[in-house]
Here is the input.
Amino acid sequence: MSPSPKEPSDDDVLIRPFLAVPYPTDPGVNGTGSHPTGHSRAARAGAASPEANDGLEVRPYVMTGGRARGGTDLPWETLVITSSYGRTVKASFEIAGILRLCEHMQSVAEVSAHLRIPIGVARVLVADLVSDGRLEAGTPPPRHAADDVEFIERLMQGVAAL
Amino acid sequence: MSTMNGDAPNGAGRTPIPVKIIVSGGFGVGKTTAIGALSEIDPLTTEGAMTTASVGIDDRGQRDQKTTTTVAFDFGRVTIDASIVLYMFGTPGQDRFGFMWADLMDGALGGLVLVDTDRIGDCFVALDYFEKIGLPFVVAVNQFEGRSNLGLEQVRESANVDPHVPVVAVDARDRESMKQLVLNLLQLLLRRARAATAN
Ligand SMILES: Nc1nc2c(ncn2[C@@H]2O[C@H](COP(=O)(O)OP(=O)(O)O)[C@@H](O)[C@H]2O)c(=O)[nH]1
Ligand SMILES: [Mg+2]
Here is the structure.
């Protein structure tokens, strides 16, 4: 796309300058990041990093046991449900809250919102609970669904029928 | 790691495929309203904490002062059918939250950039960002029942977007209008996907 300079229009409509407004910076990324999936790996778990948690954020940091990231970087929309093991085994107060909430399938974002846990912390906790079997993860969010003609057609049918 | 599908006998009880779209635009433009119009749940809010470290020595002689800012993302959920659930995430319009944006955008299908013609410049950060990461998007001009005072062509000129980017009028409060907007985005994705397959 070329930033063809435009004449001021009759009624002086504000014209967006070509990248004159700096796009949001992304401190964790070293590459150029021309695709969304290229962006976030290195920038993950910022909310849960020990340095990120002064003052008000101390409790969530303790909840994650002091680790900056879980074994898995779960996308916000990842769906989880409490396993039968998770329903019976004893858990700490915070974990019990997650396991109770997820008796009905929830996304990681919903866990964060309903239990007021910062999203970065929720992702670490949920990933841990999936790896120890107390939560079961659903179908992983597809990385390239927008390129899948059949999938988009299905989605369109579904939206049209809402 | 156990999965729901893995535990189900005969492949029964498949869990839905979760996908998401991003709703962006300036403060007060109607993002939460738009999400709520389509969502089957009242919009929820998830918060992220972000730390900025100011490097150097401040006037009390302390080094590496850190400030923690919280940033809130509103979102809603739409069950499309038994096999797909669509999440709509609203991003705050300020560019200083780019750190969390990048994290959220991963895997997003596309974006909706809401515009209030009284403050059209407020959407520029979102436009720049979506263009930069290559996220397909539709520009949606919230009409505020007629208060909107620019035509769609003027908005297109102001937004300075590629000709293939749809610029449409919406009522963020109206469910049918939001359905149509999401369909506009999906049509754009379909055209792109078909073009890519044809090559
Ligand atoms: N009258 C009118 N009010 C609207 C419309 N869209 C949004 N609003 C109101 O504008 C305010 C800001 O909307 P909100 O969705 O919270 O904006 P956000 O900051 O982008 O999430 C709220 O009070 C909405 O009810 C509209 O089309 N017409
Ligand atoms: Mg809002």
Observations:
- The first strand of chain B starts at residue 17 and ends at 24.
- Residues 17-198 of chain B form a domain with the Rossmann fold fold (CATH 3.40.50.300).
- The pocket of magnesium ion (ligand 2) is lined by residues B 31-32, 74, 90 (CB under 6 Å).
- The first helix of chain B runs from residue 4 to 7.
